[in-house]
Design brief:
Layout lengths: L1 E4 L13 H13 L5 E6 L3 E9 L8 E3 L3 E9 L1 E8 L16 E3 L6 E6 L2 E5 L3 E7 L7 E10 L1
Antiparallel strand pairs: 1-9, 2-3, 3-11, 4-7, 5-9, 5-11, 6-8, 6-10
């Protein structure tokens, strides 16, 4: 997992051939204030969604992981908590859904909590079970976020 500010995104371009394209989309989406929706950047290799929602309570949020995609989760406005735990420490509570590339896990007491504010992002790899969209201090609030899926 990587946690950083958009001003440092070029640091990570070498980690994957499509990271530069992913961050270019994020910057364009913010600059052009793209509406909520799904955006195809390169077929199934890289795609994105712009989301707006109220952050979730502890009971509403789900732990998830993906086998085929890396998530780049960037907060445009608002603030949210993302919890993350190594997959070896996580206990599955569903079977893997290959069509949606997702498997859900139980809440973990070993999770690290990151607070993402506007301009910050997390890069989450398949070994990073994550619970995004959590509210800060138990109080749901509006969040606008861009999630870019980068095929491994």
């Amino acid at each position: 997992m990587v946690f950083d500010s958009i001003k440092n995104c070029a640091t990570y371009y070498g980690m994957h051939k499509n990271f530069e394209k992913a961050f270019d989309f994020i910057k364009k989406a913010v600059e052009e204030n793209l509406p909520v929706g799904k955006y195809e950047l390169d077929g199934k290799e890289i795609f994105a969604s712009v989301q707006e929602y109220d952050s979730k309570t502890d009971e509403q949020a789900k732990n998830e992981a993906h086998k085929n995609y890396i998530d780049i989760q960037y907060v445009v406005s608002g603030v949210e908590v993302i919890e993350s735990v190594e997959i070896e420490k996580a206990i599955p509570n569903t079977e893997y859904n290959a069509e949606k590339d997702v498997m859900f896990y139980q809440k973990s007491e070993d999770a690290v909590k990151l607070i993402l504010s506007a301009g910050e992002y997390a890069i989450l790899y398949p070994q990073d079970v994550h619970r995004p969209g959590l509210c800060v201090d138990g109080k749901p609030a509006p969040v606008k976020k861009i999630v870019v899926k980068v095929k491994i």
